[in-house]
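TICKET #2291
ISSUE: user wants both folds in one file
ATTACHMENT 1:
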Amino acid sequence: MVESKQAQLDRVRTDILEKNICSELAAQATNLVMGDGNLNADIVLIGEAPGKNEDEQGLPFVGAAGKFLNEMLAAANMVRSDVYITNIVKYRPPNNRDPLPEEKKAFWPYLLKQLQIIQPKVVITLGRHSMEYFLPDMKISQVHGQPKRIHFGEGRLVVIPLYHPAAALYNGAMRQTLIDDFLQVPRIIEKL
């Protein structure tokens, strides 16, 4: 019998908990924030790590950055239920600090498992922390909004690096850049 995608993702979650991945982060977090959305999505959005609201609710992108992400999805005629949303790091870092390299490295294999289960056509990285794992030698300021084909597992994957939605909250000029980049996504998917 073929195991459902949800059952496979539940197993990834259990694996993280049983292996006590990033135990220091886990000790101060309220929730392990795995991901949310459509398990058959063509698009997976990957952020950096949960923030305060995400930690409290156990869901990714539910705070202010999440509201802006919902606006960007709506501008591209999409809703959250069309996509799957996750982060590299699955626990909130203290005081919303950036995730540390060793934290990202510890969670990377679990993110890869999520992607292997969901099998999206496109991965949208939100911010440099998630981008650098897929596109290690690139600067987000130079490649944002540009689709990049990479080898991934047995096949290829299209990665679209975008600025993190939180950047738009602190920098008004970034808001339009993010929306403009996001509006290209449906066109990019059509070409696939």
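ATTACHMENT 2:
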Amino acid sequence: MANCYGCLKDNIHGFCSSCENKLFDRSKVSNQLEFNWDDIQDRIMGQPEGFSISGVQPKGFIGRDKNNLLAPNRNIESMYIIKPFLDTRRRLYNDSPANEHLTMTMADQLFKISTAKCGLVKFANGEPAYLTRRFDRDKEGNVLGQADFVSVLNATPDTNDHGLYKYNSFTYEDVGNRLNPTDQINFIRILVFNYLTGNGDVHLKNLSLLESPDGDMLLSPSYDLMNTKLHINDPKIAMNLFKEMERTQQKLLTATYDYKIGDFHKLGKRIGVRDRILKTIEEEFRVAKANMLLLVDKSFLSDAGKLKYKEVVEQHHVQLFNT
């Protein structure tokens, strides 16, 4: 049985018409590329730091000419970001594109979290890659204003902190206090989702504000969502929830804190979300586990990847909701 390489809809070869519309403006684009990762010249190669996916996963930029996805050149606007699989030293490295694709799709489909439009593709040599359409460009390719929370909160690195300032300079409470009321509700939903799916990499650079057509700076679509525990030993969540910095006073990521759903209620109340809305969010996630596991089965993860992903969801669900 074939599933859509965008939304995982059953009995679809390549991309379904809805995903063609969202990703490619209704163009018929094959999920089979005509080039390999090595053919992409403009790529950003991060250096592994050993703490998170940040800096480990390379990414490049490609453009589209009618129905063809192409490596970028001077005449083609880079409307897409493409990521090959992780460094081969990482666990289940070949599953990283399917991992990110599944997690982004799960956020969108099951929890109505606004996400960057994405899909899976294959390089010419058959290796998998994660493809996402840039949301900092409009349909004409014009650049939209975007600011990550390193910039918004003016976070600055300490001497030789090895990038940990992205995790420890501020907290999720600090981020939430800079959002409008609607975005604050969405933010709580995003945090609970990331906790359940084992995403230990939602730091200040992976949270952004995006310019709206009216010029307002609103919470951007979510991006870089993945179950990092498939590949590295990560904490359940990247940053402290509260301004007290209860997890990482010593500026290390080795400290962990096993949050309960009540902690997310507390955070929501601190930033101004009403209790009845928080209870609705709680119930939404409490009853969603079965559907999350079903979507894992429909994904393009390997059997070992599916097993590990389910294990993380099961464990984190128990941690979150069992008193």
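RESOLUTION: both attachments delivered.
EXTRA DETAIL ON ATTACHMENT 2: Residues 42-52 have pLDDT under 50 and may be disordered.
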